[in-house]
Amino acid sequence: MLYTPPKDMRHKAVAAELTAKQMFMLFPTPMFTGKLPDIGLCDRIEKKVRELQKSGQGMSSPEGTILAYMTPDDIQHLPEMKELVDVIMWESGNILDAYKIKRDSHYIANMWANIANPNRRHHMHIHPNCLLSGLVYIKSPKHCGSTVFASPRQLSKNLEPTYLEKNELNSDVFVSPAEKGRMLIWPSHMPHAVEQGSADESEERIVVAFNVMIRGLIELHTGRLDLR
Q1: What pLDDT, in 10s, does the model give residues 37-69?
Q2: What is the pTM of this model?
Q3: Which residue, 112, 160, 162, is CA-closest to 136?
Q4: Domains, the chain, ranges and CATH?
């Protein structure tokens, strides 16, 4: 990428300025996103998730506390989830190909759904024991909590200057507003959380989350690992 000085600096260019300038984006952390082709799938998934909740499967917050329900973490095997699983498998395969990751195959290691108070916060965390993680917003009331991603480099800084404005070069936080039918997929080591929302609490925020892993032999010298 060519480097272009900010407009307010261009008048200061002198003979000492470099020629053939370039800027390389070193070690980027990509975020992949898109919308489900059939938004009605969200309603069908919501119906099944509520059936699981009603039947007592999964875990619920204690009575009297802020609503938080989580299904079992293997719902990828349910027939009602096949449409969503097919999309996840296709898109995650494309992402693994973009990374040029050698593998025999890939699979969804875990998939679960959360039903929560739309304004409930969730602490910063990562997903261990997988390569890719993702989520799909199934129900997203207006002004409900957004998903926030933090740069893994954030804790390695020893100096934090004052920035005149935030851009992709200096930002350490990325916020993804909840949008019904939108899927996000990211490298599993990236920390993320849910912000405090300000939605109508008569509604609920529903998300399906998942982890993707590979099968195969990792042929790294002194780090050989058989995942078959």
Answers
A1: 999 999 999 999 999 999 999 999 886 677 799
A2: 0.89
A3: 112
A4: 27-226 (2.60.120.620)
